[in-house]
Structures are given as structure tokens and as C-alpha cells.
Amino acid sequence: MLVTILFIFCIFYTSDAFKMTKVEENNYGMRNITWECEFCLSGCSLARYFVNDFYWRDIYMLGAEKLCAFISSEKIKKICDKYTSKYLPEILDAIGSVFVPEEICLDFNICNFTEIKMFTIQKNNKI
Q: Saposin B-type domain: which residues (predicted)?
């Protein structure tokens, strides 16, 4: 899923045709946020939710257990079960802790600081 999101970002990042601006009026003097920035922040927030949410974590664990069940070699199956039960939760915790949508969109130069502030203000106003 993360690869798909990154692929879509690359498409938007390389094509100027997609760089449209959404005009928003607010009390903070910030007016413009690009669609690609909003898409990046929303997509990364959704991906972070899928990594951190307990329901989805259980789904990943069940999927990994089922994957291990398909292995024919008992020795490899035991190794798979051990790594799934011991390391998969740690891996998901590590990914969830470093996966910050604002930083990712800034690092890819999809958003600037003003757009991120505006997106955060809009998100907080909707709550």
C-alpha cells in the first residue's frame, strides 16, 4: 500500500498539470494550498492510521499467521511464526512512530510550511 501511495506521489510530483491551487479564505492570512499537498497529507494520514490502528494491526498479524501456515517446511514455519509473533508488532510500532505525514510531504517537496499550517488549521476546525 505504501508503495502505491509513493507511486501516486511521484506521478503528481513530476506533472505540473496536476498542480492546481485550491483557494481557501481564513483568518490567518493563508490562502492557497495545492491539491497535491492536500492529497499527500491526507494519504499519509490515512496510511499512518492503517499502521497505528489496533484493528488493522490485528489484520496484519492474522495475515502474517496465515502466510506462515502455507509454508510446507515445519522448520521454516516455526521460524516464520516466531518472527511474526515477536517482531511484526515491533516493526509496526517503529513504522508508526516515524511515519509523520507533515515531514514526509515536506521531504518530498510536495508541501511547504504554509500549506501544512493551513491543512492543520482546517483539520482542527473540522473536529
A: 33-115
